[in-house]
Design brief:
mainly alpha, Neurolysin, domain 3, 64% helix, globular, binds zinc ion
């Protein structure tokens, strides 16, 4: 018997436990009752221990070593990739003592509700001790895995985006800082005024939900394999390519839910497009966080915020909200949904200022991990950076450092992939425009052609390729952040009628 065939049942068990854990995560954010937290956290802690055993037990370690030695016996690219991914997962967790791993899982399960409470009370001090513990664990865990001389934050970054370290990200964010901060200033002082007041108003929730379902389906989210629910913070999760779950939230601003849904549908379409032979294996998910974000932002911005996208469906939208939008021409609507407005909330940010929000988180994470900054410093540093880059200052923690759930989940090194994703999307966008009548397809409602292109070049592969490889194979060149800068300057220069 091949070592791989003996390894396979372990892989399947690990994936089954992981799927169950994912479902708990989903449930925590959507339907779980308020008091479920503590007890469910202990179930999650126990299952996490089981996962560790199945994914990184001694037997698995030996089998993986044999699989590598018997490389010729591996019969497909997929098998080779599964062994590679399992090896990496093993290295990620091997040196973490089981008790510490379980303790950390319990801590993060609990801290989500501590964070939520702190946010509600607008009081960072409530969350600070939990956050300090999470950072301590994260640094400890990264330390177990770091190669000699490797920076801890680089270890964390590697989990989300292979091949991107502080060195390359400093360069990337440096470009953003030098080009976009002054460009934003120019738009604020020289750009024309855009009215978006009609986007806020009496948009009944049941109608917004109807619109959300329509749009998700229109861009290609398959409701036979997916669901849409409500959560405080929109997100996507997937159990496998036949069960993909997205959420949104409904507010007084109709465009908030509308673009959240298109964004999450973009994530969902990626997961649904992964090949059947890869799903429910460690290779059966998006290539990286950044590549995932490139797809959601591609759907949200390149597709969803284009005037051509709305041409075939704007009448439907107007019909749904005649009082609010009946008098608003299409051009005024698409101008409004592209309005640049430096604000405090990342998830509500316009496309131009979005990466500045990410830049701020990147700089703070570097301070926390590499400079050992005290967590109690976060509120002040956060506010100062917002003032410097965006010209706004939060008046309380709820609209400042408590707005994102990521740190409470132990996700450090995650944020940069949001900005990288936008940059990947811009590079793919320019390449696609050379190869198809992109605007015409949108105007005719033929989104299937665009979706098929993305499935063919990106989605189907899961993690068979890295994000860098996908970019190269799809666009013919390595990652090039200048496309992103060019995209933003061209688009917003035109909308605001300023020279870039
Ligand atoms: Zn996203």
């Amino acid at each position: 018997m091949r070592a791989y065939d003996r390894l396979k049942p372990y892989m399947e068990k690990a994936m089954a436990i992981k799927t169950a854990l994912t479902l708990f995560e989903w449930d925590n954010e959507t339907l779980a009752p308020q008091e479920a937290g503590e007890l469910t956290a202990s179930v999650i802690g126990l299952l996490s221990g089981e996962y560790l055993e199945a994914a990184a037990g001694e037997e698995v370690e030996q089998l993986l070593a044999r699989c590598e030695a018997e490389d010729a016996a591996l019969s497909s690219e997929a098998e080779r990739a599964i062994v590679r991914e399992m090896k990496e997962e093993l290295e990620r967790v091997r040196d973490i003592p089981k008790e510490e791993y379980q303790e950390f899982a319990r801590l993060t399960a609990r801290s989500a509700s501590i964070w939520a409470k702190a946010r509600e009370e607008q009081n960072f001090a409530v969350f600070a001790p939990a956050l300090a513990s999470i950072i301590r664990y994260q640094k400890k865990f990264a330390g177990y895995r770091a190669q000699k001389g490797e920076a801890l934050y680089d270890v964390m970054l590697e989990d989300y985006e292979k091949g991107f370290t502080m060195e390359s990200l400093d360069r990337f964010f440096g470009l953003i800082k030098t080009h976009l901060v002054p460009f934003l200033q120019k738009i604020k002082t020289e750009g024309r005024r855009i009215d978006d007041s009609f986007l806020t108003g009496d948009y009944p929730e049941y109608k917004q939900e109807k619109l959300a379902r329509f749009l998700a389906e229109y861009v290609g989210f398959d409701f036979k394999r997916g669901v849409l629910a409500v959560s405080a913070h929109p997100f996507t999760t997937n159990l496998h390519n036949k069960d993909v779950r997205i959420t949104t939230h409904y507010t007084k601003r109709v465009d908030s839910s509308l673009f959240s849904v298109i964004h999450e549908a973009g994530h969902g379409i990626y997961e649904m497009g992964i090949r059947n032979d890869l799903t429910l294996t460690p290779v059966g998910q998006g290539a990286s966080m950044g590549m995932h974000e490139s797809q959601s932002r591609f759907f949200e911005n390149m597709i969803g915020r284009s005037e051509f996208f709305w041409m075939p469906i704007y009448e439907k939208l107007r019909g749904l909200f005649p009082d609010e939008l009946g008098e608003i021409p299409l051009e005024a609507f698409t101008d409004a949904v592209n309005k640049v407005q430096p604000g405090l909330i990342r998830t509500e940010a316009d496309e131009l200022t979005y990466s500045l929000h990410v830049l701020i988180r990147y700089e703070i994470e570097k301070l926390l991990i590499e400079e050992d900054m005290d967590v109690r410093e976060i509120p002040r540093v956060w506010a100062d950076k917002y003032e410097e880059y965006l010209g706004v200052r939060p008046s309380h923690s709820g609209e400042g450092e408590l707005q994102d759930i990521h740190w409470s989940q132990g996700s450090f090194g995650y944020f940069p992939s949001y900005a990288l994703g936008s940059a990947f999307a811009a590079q793919i966008y320019y390449h696609m425009r050379e190869n198809m009548d992109f605007d015409g397809l949108l105007a005719r409602g033929e989104l299937g052609v665009i979706r098929e292109y993305l499935r063919e070049n990106i989605h189907q592969y899961g993690r068979l390729k890295t994000s860098r490889q996908i970019l190269k194979d799809t666009t013919g060149e390595d990652f090039n952040p200048l496309y992103y800068i060019r995209y933003l300057k061209e688009k917003y220069g035109k909308i605001y009628r300023v020279k870039n």
